[in-house]
Amino acid sequence: MSALMELEKTWQDWLKHNLARGVPSNKLAASLFEKGWIDAAYELIHKSNSNLQIPYIDISHNHIKLMDREVSLAFTCHKPFIAVINNFLSPEECQALIDDADSKLKASRVVNPEDGTFVEHHARTSTSTGYQRGEIPVIKNIENRISELVHWPVENGEGLQVLRYEDGGEYRPHFDFFDPAKKSSSVVTKKGGQRLGTFLMYLSDVDAGGSTRFPNLNFEVRPKMGTALYFANTDLNGQIDKLTLHAGTPVTEGVKYLATKWLREKPYV
Ligand SMILES: O=C(O)CCC(=O)C(=O)O
Ligand SMILES: [Fe+2]
After folding, report:
1. Which of 57, 120, 127, 159 is the most buried (most CB within 10 A)?
2. Ligand 1 contact via 246 beta carbon (within 6 Å)
3. pTM for this one?
4. By its UniProt entry, which Pfam families does this protein fall under (predicted)?
5. 10 membership: H or E segment, kind and range
6. Ligand nearest to the CA of 164
């Protein structure tokens, strides 16, 4: 049954009326979303020819059959949109990424808000390495799987990054979106536009610490090998959402490996 068809008659009339008078469908979808009718909001965006398309995960079922893997939703949050996806990667895929990345890791960098250059910073104490899209077969498969799950083209993804956090390693609270108010924004969005979503994959189990924490939302996701965490950095109107402030908390026992894929508004070429 279509989620739009399941809406109460008064809301269906409201929708028809506003569409007829030319209100953009993403604006109407945002109102549905605010009301908690997430499926209906996404269905509206998906069915309409709205210019603003956004990545979305179908949360109508607890298990999702993808082309090459069945995954399950362990946690969802509506505003901002957040989903924790279990069984997204196999242990073999996690190990293959770790094995390939291990010899290439270098100190991680962050974007300098003043000029858009990448610089080392005490707020991000991990080592990492970046890949081209499809650089090795395991990455190509994973990128296709992400694309299928979030309904977003592979071409709009930045290259995968693999990170390693050792004892005390962390990524202090930050946003992944580019703030239009910052000087660097025009430089970093030139290629691909805004970072609409963040797709993190935990490649290792960590004995203690190493959660991804959302300080403004009061929860954290603990790392578990093969689990993925997706969150939307902007709302349905394309506005940056400051509730997405997040951090990788210090690892206190063990080693945390993480793969990060940022999803852009437009093709990232
Ligand atoms: O380490 C984490 O859990 C968060 C990583 C992160 O925020 C990022 O790579 O942008
Ligand atoms: Fe981040």
Report:
1. 57
2. yes
3. 0.91
4. 2OG-FeII_Oxy_3
5. helix 9-20
6. 1
Ligand 1 site, residue 108, Cβ cutoff 6 A: no
CATH class of 63-264: mainly beta
DSSP states of 57-75 as a string? ---SSSEEE-SS-EEEEEE
ipTM above 0.85, yes or no: yes
Q: Are 259 and 250 in contact (CB under 8 A)?
A: no
Most ligand 1 atoms within 8 A of CB, residue of 108, 198, 233 to mutate: 198
Distance 81 CA to ligand 2 centre (A): 15
Boundaries of every domain in the chain:
9-47, 63-264
Contacts of 225 (CB under 8 A, 6+ apart): 89, 91, 94, 202, 203, 204, 205
**How many A from CA of 174 to the centre of ligand 1?**
9
What torsion, rounded to 10 degrees, do the Cα atoms 239, 267, 269, 189 define?
Answer: -10
What ligand 1 atom has the least distance to the C-alpha of 165? 1
Q: How far is the CA of 171 from the centre of ligand 1 (A)?
A: 6
